[in-house]
Amino acid sequence: MVDRNRINQISRRKEQFDIMRTYINIVSPRRVRMWQYRQLTAVHRVNRPARPEKARHHGFRSKQGFVVYRVRVRRGGRKWPVIKGQTYGKPKTHGVNELKNVRSHQGVAEGRVGKRCGAHRVLSSYWIAEDSTYKFYEVVLIDPQHKAIRTNAELNWICKPVHKHREMRGLTSGGRKSRGLGKGHKFTQTNDERDLAQEAVGGRQIPPACPHVAIQAADCRSPCNHVASCRKSDNYGLYKRGYGE
User: Fold this and answer.
1) Which residues lie closer than 8 Å to 82 by C-beta, 6 or more apart?
2) Residue 121: CB atoms within 10 Å
3) Largest CB tally within 10 Å, which of 132, 139, 190, 237?
């Protein structure tokens, strides 16, 4: 037979647990932090990163020239802005509701911060929080005009003009994830740089370079010693047309 005092003790403990669980859900630090993030503007600067270890992993250093911005992005896909949901086109273009963005939420966040701070260079970004409506990211930026950055041999690479708006070209760590880069059976549907180069020249095959033919055409009248290795090359016709023989 179960003791009645034991039953009352268990029920009281369960009641206290339910009350504490409700209290934690209402005023937990995470919920308070999310409420605070929602009251701020969509893109704003922060004094210190919310995740210092993650920020340092992505290149942040607590020194002059580094800036951290927090940005929020609305979660989910997007709806095509057409009147009454009618696209007036072929069935292929009738999709309205379940549209997916090619870029990830993190890539969109980096792009918004880069547009806001055009004079800075986006180094990287990382996730900090999310709720039912938004995802929050912190973006690490570098001032390329700062003397402390330009004189630092480990950081002045980002001062080159080629790194302007690198977040819009998928060169950051978050942007590379949505480009499908990699090797193996999981990346057979992605186009590498050679495919893109072939598209640039109208789909024609790009013949491999043959440096031996160029050398022979320049200052050699004897038969090329590397002709056997270059017979399969498209440039072998140069050798047959008189170079070296």
Assistant:
1) 96
2) 20
3) 139
